[in-house]
Write a structure and sequence with these properties.
By secondary structure, the chain is an alpha+beta fold. It folds into 5 domains: 74 residues, no CATH class; 101 residues, Mac-2 Binding Protein, CATH 3.10.250; 131 residues, Potassium Channel Kv1.1, Chain A (2-Layer Sandwich), CATH 3.30.710.10; 122 residues, Serine Threonine Protein Phosphatase 5, Tetratricopeptide repeat, CATH 1.25.40; 158 residues, no CATH class. It is 29% helix and 20% strand. The chain contains 19 helices and 26 strands. The strands form 8 sheets. Strands 3, 4, 5, 6, 7 and 8 form a 6-stranded mixed beta sheet that branches. A 5-stranded antiparallel beta sheet has the order 17-18-19-20-24. Strands 16-25-22-23 form a 4-stranded antiparallel beta sheet, with no helix packed on it. Strand 22 and strand 23 form a beta hairpin. Helix 8 runs antiparallel to helix 9, helix 10 runs antiparallel to helix 11 and helix 14 runs antiparallel to helix 15.
């Protein structure tokens, strides 16, 4: 069927289309009869040809050309059943645009949420063992006919795409410019968490055999376990290491070992890392190694100690996958301590970002009292802390201080990071009655409360004139506050359902956009114009909407391109104070409220990262969801005063 499909597309002139211009003699006395609009089902062959005429003959005889054409018309659907898949327009049988059969016709699949888990299901259904690429953006050209499925979310072991979660048959917000494609392969990994880093080149196998023979060595590399035991001794050719580096001419991963004087090199290795020591030395030959999430820390340690900087960087990228696997946050805390000990600034920054975006969950975890004081001094000054409110942060610091038995000086150092102006006057007033920290740090609280009350009661014009008061300083800037006062959420799925009516809830519905046959999830909500008490009753209306298509962007007056989709749209009504700017944020949420990524709203839109897992061939999220994909998005409104040194959206 694949060969036939390609042939009919490449040589359409070989199969003339029947029509009124055909001689009646060739049709065996048959004549065309006009019919009404086609239903679409069964009206497309594998070539995408469409008919608007029916052909009838009074007798059983049928001319050979007509028989041949009818056979060609139905060749693409004969024997196919619902859920069957095929690849079209690829350069090889293992690659192409994904097409799926449903109710008598073939159609395409939209690339929204398309990743390698989905591609594996397609490839295995076609007899391949795995998928090497999941492509979007009509990489193999746009298809024709209906778009059968959209927002497919496979686990990876389903028998068919039809068994995966999606918006349902023929429900989509997509065009053929977003048709999904795959490249299949027969390479497999027994460990689904394994990720291959390959710089091998043509000499990889030969150099690996030289290493495996363990003969003719002039350099002995020995692993010395840190508790004093000796590990396996492995021979390595200094010459081959040098030759390997020169041939590849890309990354001198083994130069540090090759430059060691003498014939013996001893490496200090943790006991837990001895099992991967041989694989690491072999990598210095072959430039190829498979790293699982269980072994990534050991490979990172060995690469760091031996100057294998490219492998070290690769392992560092895998830590972004490892961190969300443990929402007890113990892994994140352990990796942060490890980053400090190895002076790995990139890994340290990665851990801090993960903890900042998921700070609310961290304060509620059992690991919260074990967070080091030094790490808190890194986290608390950040404006990208995601948490319900500044009062929630103060309570979390109080709980940490009591659980740790922190000294007065340690606690006061943390309190200096609390942004008291971001708390409302009634919250400030109640601190003396409900906060256990108040009386032990009364002088500090009184100073900070006075600072906050000035912010809440004095107009900007006077505040700006106040000597020494810097409104661009951290205490006067909002964090990512996720409470209902400053944020709202919208969900991308469940297109055809309406939420239950709640008379006092925020307006949450699926809005039908003008000039388009679709419903887009949106939420309208209100926030104060500014955290200052002066603006408490001056509410600003907002509308948050999930926009999956270019048409939907146009419908809402937002400019976006195909490459940017899907996006979140955020618009406001009314006119806020001219002295207030907004640095709004969009949060991508996985199951259990885990924050996978944060982006900025610019020009009324926030881009949604298209990679929802580490297996996606598109740009991945900063922290992929531990399982499945995300579909919940939170918009956080972040107003601040405009001054000479700040600006807003």
């Amino acid at each position: 069927m694949w060969f036939l499909e390609i042939e009919t597309r490449l040589f359409p002139e070989a199969f003339p289309r029947p029509g009124p211009a055909w001689p009646r003699s060739l049709l065996g006395g048959c004549s065309p009869q006009r019919t009404g609009p086609q239903s679409g089902k069964g009206s497309r062959a594998a070539t995408g040809t469409h008919f608007g005429q029916s052909w009838g003959c009074p007798g059983p005889a049928m001319a050979l050309p007509r028989l041949f054409w009818m056979w060609l018309l139905f060749a693409g659907t004969r024997g196919a059943k619902d859920g069957d898949v095929r690849l079209a327009d690829g350069d090889a049988p293992n690659a192409g645009r994904v097409e799926i059969f449903h109710q008598g016709q073939w159609g395409t699949v939209c690339d929204h949420l398309w990743d390698l888990d989905d591609a594996r299901v397609v490839c295995r259904a076609l007899g391949f063992q795995n998928a090497s690429q999941a492509l979007g953006g009509a990489a193999f050209g746009p298809g024709a006919g209906p778009i059968m499925l959209d927002e497919i979310q496979c686990v990876g072991d389903e028998p068919s795409l039809a068994s995966c979660q999606s918006l349902g048959w023929l429900n989509n917000f997509c065009g053929h410019e977003r048709d999904a494609g795959v490249v299949c392969s027969n390479e497999t990994h027994t460990d689904p968490s394994a990720h291959t880093f390959d710089l091998s080149g043509e000499l990889s196998d030969a150099l690996g055999q030289i290493f495996d023979n363990q003969q003719g060595c002039d350099l002995t590399i020995q692993a010395k376990v840190k508790n004093g035991e000796e590990g396996p001794s492995l021979c390595a050719h200094r010459l081959i290491l040098c030759a390997h580096r020169l041939i590849l001419a890309t990354n001198p991963e083994a130069q540090a070992l090759a430059a060691e004087p003498g014939g013996n090199v001893t490496l200090s290795v943790d006991a837990e890392c001895v099992p991967v020591f041989r694989d690491f030395i072999r990598y210095l030959y072959t430039r190829r190694v498979t790293v699982s999430l269980a072994s990534v820390k050991c490979f990172h340690k060995l690469a760091s100690s031996c100057g294998a900087t490219e492998l070290q960087s690769f392992c560092g990228s895998l830590f972004a996958i490892l961190l969300p696997q443990d929402l007890s946050f113990q892994t994140a805390l352990d990796l942060y301590a490890y980053a400090l000990s190895t002076r790995d600034a990139l890994l340290e920054e990665l851990c801090v970002q993960f903890l900042a975006w998921n700070f609310q969950a961290l304060t509620q975890a059992e690991a919260w009292p074990s967070v080091p004081l030094g790490l808190l001094h890194v986290l608390l000054p950040k404006s990208e802390l995601a948490l319900p409110s500044e009062l929630a942060l103060l309570k979390a610091v109080d709980a940490w201080s009591q659980a740790r038995g922190a000294s007065a000086a340690e606690t006061e150092g943390l309190l200096e990071h609390i942004r008291f102006p971001m708390m409302q006057p009634e919250e400030l007033f109640e601190l003396q009655f409900n906060g256990s920290l108040f009386w032990s740090h009364e002088a500090l609280f009184q100073k900070k409360t006075l600072q906050a009350l000035q912010f809440h009661t004095v107009p900007l014009r006077l505040l700006a004139q106040h000597t020494g008061l810097n409104l661009t300083a951290a205490p006067y800037q909002p964090r990512i506050y996720t409470s209902a006062t400053w944020s709202a959420t919208v969900t991308s799925g469940s297109w055809n359902t309406w939420p239950a009516y709640e008379p006092y809830a925020r307006k949450y519905a699926y809005t039908r956009a003008p000039r388009h046959y679709g419903y887009y999830p949106y939420q309208s909500f209100q926030t104060p114009q500014h955290p200052s008490f002066i603006f408490r009753d001056k509410l600003l209306p907002w509308s948050l909407v999930y926009l999956p298509t270019v048409q939907s962007c146009w419908d809402y007056g937002i400019s976006c391109s195909v490459d940017e989709l899907p996006v979140l749209g955020l618009s406001r009504s009314g006119y806020p104070d001219a002295n207030i700017g907004y640095g709004n944020k969009a949060l991508m949420l996985c199951d259990r409220g885990f924050v996978a990524g944060v982006t900025d709203f610019q020009d009324q839109k926030a881009l949604i990262p298209s990679g929802l897992s580490p297996n996606s061939s598109s740009s991945p999220l900063f922290f992929p969801c531990p399982a499945g994909n995300f579909s919940v998005f939170r918009a956080v409104i972040r107003p601040s005063y405009l001054t000479n040194s700040t600006g807003g959206d």
